[in-house]
Write a structure and sequence with these properties.
The chain is of the alpha+beta class. It has six helices and nine strands, in the order E-H-E-E-E-H-E-E-E-E-H-H-H-E-H.
Length: about 230
């Protein structure tokens, strides 16, 4: 059985709020070595995971997730590098019915109130469905969700407050080729999510390792994955 190749990119991405360093307090990029013990602890507590069954291997953050069979949906990736933590989980993909990125990002905000948390899931369901969340301490949650170029579109929060808090100026947006339109359906929310992490974005980094876990997802997460990834089975 072959799954349709519909994944563009997904993952809740953000720092691990830890008492040693404050999130993003260090001015440089990610330098710490991957901590598989803390990564497993985070995976075990993540809202879509019922149980971590085993750690099967490590993989560079730049290596794409394999999604060829039903069994591939049981694997997630977690990286933990000092005060930066990232997770990629196929159960975060959506078609506008469940908004799992917002749900999990909000749960992480409650657990780590001092962390900057960025979630992004863009999935091709014939047309592309996009969901992005940016959480900056002291600023209302920014949530964008919908089908680019189509109505309806969900946008909540204060975009300008987020840009100001992150120091993202019009010049930065132009330099990084990230377009923010007055019409949210035509804005590059995935690009903005990337800018929100800046040099702390681990995805695409061949020098950073992640842990690959085989998990049993929760019933609700499993049902959503079957709806998104296996609609004709």
């Amino acid at each position: 059985m072959e799954l349709p190749a519909r994944l563009q990119g997904l993952g809740v991405r953000g720092p691990h709020h830890h008492p040693r360093p404050a999130p993003f307090s260090d001015p440089g990029p990610v330098r710490a070595a991957h901590d598989p013990v803390r990564a497993r602890e985070f995976a075990e507590a993540f809202g879509t995971v019922d149980e971590v069954l085993e750690e099967v291997q490590s993989a560079p953050a730049a290596e794409p997730m394999a999604l060829a069979t039903r069994q591939d949906l049981d694997f997630i990736r977690v990286g933990c590098w000092g005060n930066v933590l990232a997770i990629s989980d196929p159960s975060l993909a959506d078609n506008g019915t469940a908004r799992p990125v917002r749900g999990q990002a909000t749960a992480l905000r409650d657990r780590y109130p001092g962390a900057r948390i960025v979630g992004s899931a863009h999935v091709d369901c014939g047309e592309t469905h996009a969901e992005d969340v940016i959480i900056v301490p002291g600023v209302p949650l920014l949530h964008s969700e919908g089908w680019p170029g189509e109505e309806p579109w969900t946008l909540t929060g204060d975009l300008q407050a987020v840009l100001d808090a992150l120091g993202i100026t019009p010049e930065v947006l132009e330099e990084e080729d990230v377009e923010l339109s007055d019409d949210p359906r035509y804005s590059d929310w995935e690009g903005l999510s990337r800018l929100a992490l800046g040099r702390y974005d681990p995805w695409g980094r061949a020098d950073l390792l992640t842990s690959v876990f085989r998990v049993r997802h929760t019933e609700s997460a499993t049902a959503l994955m079957e709806e998104i990834w296996l609609p004709d089975v």
